[in-house]
Amino acid sequence: xxxxxxxxxxxxxxxxxxxxxxxxxxxxxxxxxxxxxxxxxxxxxxxxxxxxxxxxxxxxxxxxxxxxxxxxxxxxxxxxxxxxxxxxxxxxxxxxxxxxxxxxxxxxxxxxxxxxxxxxxxxxxxxxxxxxxxxxxxxxxxxxxxxxxxxxxxxxxxxxxxxxxxxxxxxxxxxxxxxxxxxxxxxxxxxxxxxxxxxxxxxxxxxxxxxxxxxxxxxxxxxxxxx
Length: 227
Hints:
Layout: E1 10-14, E2 19-23, E3 28-32, H1 34-43, H2 53-64, E4 88-89, H3 103-123, H4 125-135, H5 145-158, H6 169-182, E5 188-194, E6 199-206, E7 209-210, E8 222-226
Parallel strand pairs: 4-7
Antiparallel strand pairs: 1-2, 2-3, 5-6, 5-8, 6-7
């Protein structure tokens, strides 16, 4: 059993070039290079041979930053986000004609955007994630693809009238997740990261389908959080 654990508000993953921590409480990322990742792996393995001063320095730094804890009761194992990357788009092509809109669509769209804006601006990313977990229905292994496609087209049609999605993937994905939840469509919102250079991206998927976009957009990212 490991001596070190992830605190409740911290998520982490290994990448091909190192390690990335996400502190939801402070909405901050923290990275380790290849060498420090090797030290971290040995810290997490109690069967590893004797550790040296470098291990102690890294452990102290991560504990002081609140990225690791020795409290087994409050923490959880250092494990990757359990989600497979989508391999197919939900929408095969962009449809130019406007979808059939109802007043309820507009109400749910505006409600979703306001809810997410308040969660992120008045509270924190941690609050937004916790709220999503509380309101999330039981996970399912399939979805009504036709229904999901209908509501995603509605969302895509209304979006340009309210905000620009470009460089705003976190808000956009959370709003899309909230909108679809209100319409009874089950999805998973995923935060992914990559290193050298560092970048973070957020997307929505349901099963093997990427809800808004093409799979190549997310293929280079390692999931760090899925809810």
